[in-house]
Design goal:
ABC_transp_perm/SBD; MetI-like fold; disordered C terminus; transmembrane helix
């Protein structure tokens, strides 16, 4: 019983738990705050966004971010690994230039180009977010693999490991914390950037923001921005849980 209470206490004292509860509670309960927004913005005829439920927009936003991040991580890790292999080192400048261009071009421009080609909705948003999230993953994958000590690689070779065994058992585990930091940055960027996907008809938490900006409705903008901000906090705290922690060594007595 004591152990279960301690476990429950740790969960309740975890900032991630409270951030998730706040995000879900605000998504479900936002319509109940209509009197508050009516008081804050008395000049607005419609102080509450009611074209779609906030919980549905939250779910669609998360799905879009997860899908685009999976593409970014898959392509970014593969490109980063290839750029650090003997066969791909000559192509590293080209790879880095291409992924940098993907983040330099504004996502709005990518959406404007992709929408006439693939149609409106989630498809152009997926393309834009996947391209925009590549750079941190590629850069951190390269940095992580290059930070592996040469002594560790030499020891692995001395043990008779093949190239694949050396990569899987030595290089990748040592590089993983750095790679995960790049994935974390990419996902958090995409959480915020996904809001503009609503300009091409995708369902995201950017819908009230875009409609609010076009209709000069500050209440709509605030409602969407609150949920996007909370979602970014939840994502960041979740990655903080996933980040490897250094082992604590206790001094011998």
């Amino acid at each position: 019983m004591t152990a279960s209470r301690r476990g429950a206490g740790r969960v309740l004292s975890d900032p991630l738990t409270w951030a998730i509860l706040m995000l879900l509670g605000l998504s479900w309960g936002m319509p109940g705050l209509k009197p508050l927004f009516a008081t804050l913005y008395p000049a607005l005829d419609r102080p509450m966004y009611e074209q779609d439920s906030f919980i549905a927009l939250l779910g669609a936003h998360v799905l879009l971010v997860v899908a685009s991040s999976l593409v970014s991580v898959s392509l970014g890790v593969l490109a980063g690994v290839y750029a650090t292999r003997a066969s791909g080192r000559a192509y590293r400048p080209m790879i880095e230039t291409l992924v940098a261009m993907g983040q330099t071009v504004p996502p709005v421009a990518v959406l404007a180009i992709a929408a006439p080609l693939v149609g409106f909705g989630e498809a152009p948003a997926l393309i834009a977010l996947a391209l925009y999230g590549l750079l941190p993953v590629v850069e951190q994958t390269i940095a992580g693999l290059q930070s592996v000590p040469a002594a560790s690689l030499e020891a692995a070779t001395g043990l008779g490991m093949s190239r694949w065994q050396r990569f899987r058992q030595v290089e990748w585990p040592l590089a993983w914390p750095v790679v995960l930091a790049g994935i974390r940055t990419s996902v958090i960027i995409n959480i915020g950037t996904a809001t503009i996907a609503s300009t091409v008809g995708a369902r995201t938490l950017g819908s009230p923001i875009i409609i609010g900006l076009s209709g000069f409705n500050t209440a709509y903008v605030l409602q969407g921005a609150l949920l996007v901000g909370l979602l970014a906090v939840v994502g960041d705290l979740l990655f903080e849980k996933l980040m490897p922690r250094p082992a604590s060594h206790q001094a011998p007595r």
